[in-house]
Design brief:
This protein has 305 residues and is an alpha+beta fold. It contains 9 helices and 5 strands; from the N terminus they run αααββαααβββααα.
Length: 305
Amino acid sequence: MVIASAALAGGLIHRWARRGDGVRSRHAIALGAAVFVATFLGHAMLAPRGLETFARTWPQLLAAYVGGIPLLATLFASIVERERLQAAARRFRAILDEASDAIRIVDGDTQRVLDANRADATLAGRPREALLGEDARALWPPDEPERGRWETLQADARQRGVASGFGLLYPRRAGAPLTVDVTARVAEHAGRRYEILVIRDAAEREALERARREVGELRAVTMLANAAAHEINNPLTVVVGSLELLRRRVPAGETEQGWMDRALAAAGRIHEIIARMSRITKLEAAPTHAGVPEMLDVHRSSKEG
């Protein structure tokens, strides 16, 4: 009877705790009181002998149930909470290290690096342990104006909460400096300010921008070539037709025949160039000399080049 009553009380209090924010001291005290009452009722069922036994032991039972159970519950809750926090920390570390972008967390007041993921250590060319505790400003480029760009990024982030910088110079311990894109965000927690930097190698973005520029330039050249071909072909057809008519009227062997032959050959050459212009698929510059402006190599830029 006592065990069944205690189990029932435990189930009800467990449901009560689940409807709230978890097991708290009030739940443990309520459980201890319920077990104490169930113990009293169990002794009362044994008539005078049971009540006499309860009268001698109730202080100890009260201390054990109402005091001991909450104490044990608090202890177990602390252990569970600590394990939960440790699991959350391990999960955070795993997610942070698996991120493809470099992530750095900096103390907003002291500018000391509090955390850095594996990608940041790889990008900087130094172990993560060497980054922790380092003054974040020591990781900026030492020379102006590149250092000034990092300072401007930091000032903008502190003013607006978030800021982005593109094409910033990122010095490394070994190897040439990199060009990176950085997003800086300022966050506050428990009265402390943190600066979170997300750093990405700008090579991919720059390659994409170059590809977009090349596509745009190729489209512009293709449109111009098609328009020029259309505009040139119309008068060229008239010129070629007129030369053919004149050639028929000039007797063979005359000097004028040679002139017209050369003119027709040049017209054919113009027609060939126009045809190549309509087949341009890439932009290749022709070799030039000093003082000569850069120009497109139509043969190398067309499909037949």
